[in-house]
Amino acid sequence: MEALVAFCTFPDAETARKIVRELVDLRVAACGNILSQVHSIYRWQGKVESGDEVLAIFKLDASRYSEFETKLRALHPYEVPEIISCKIDNGLPEYLSWVGESCAK
Questions:
Q1: DSSP notation for 8-21
Q2: Which of 7, 21, 51, 61 is most buried, with most CB under 10 Å away?
Q3: Which residues does residue 54 pair with via DSSP β-bridges, in sequence order?
């Protein structure tokens, strides 16, 4: 099993909690950690913008990534949400096993 960590920002904690809960309920993510109040500075439509957001960090089985991305994009209120992922090269084997079990269909 290959595990991933994925990141996504949300406009507020309520939206993040709702979406993270649904993704975990659907088993496309083992868990999502919600970090409150991050300040983002970014370029959007030719202008530099900034604003407060909430960051969620997901752990998931790589085999479920396509479903995870599709569902997250469908639920997300942003036109172009930040959805990025990285492979987990090393980690506690028991934890990574739990990630795989939690995402099993």
A1: EEESSHHHHHHHHH
A2: 61
A3: 10
Tell me the residue range of the domain where 26 lies.
3-102
Please state the domain count of the chain: 1
pLDDT tens digits along 23-73: 999 999 999 999 999 999 999 999 999 999 999 999 999 999 999 999 999
Closest CA relative to residue 3, chosen from 84, 59, 67: 59
CB-based contact 58:46 (threshold 8 Å): no
> Angle at which helices 13-25 and 65-75 pack, to 10 degrees?
140
Q: CA 92 to CA 105: how far, in whole Å?
A: 22
Residue 59 backbone dihedrals phi, psi, to 5 degrees: -120, 130
Cβ–Cβ < 8 Å for 36, 54 = yes
pTM of the predicted model over 0.70: yes
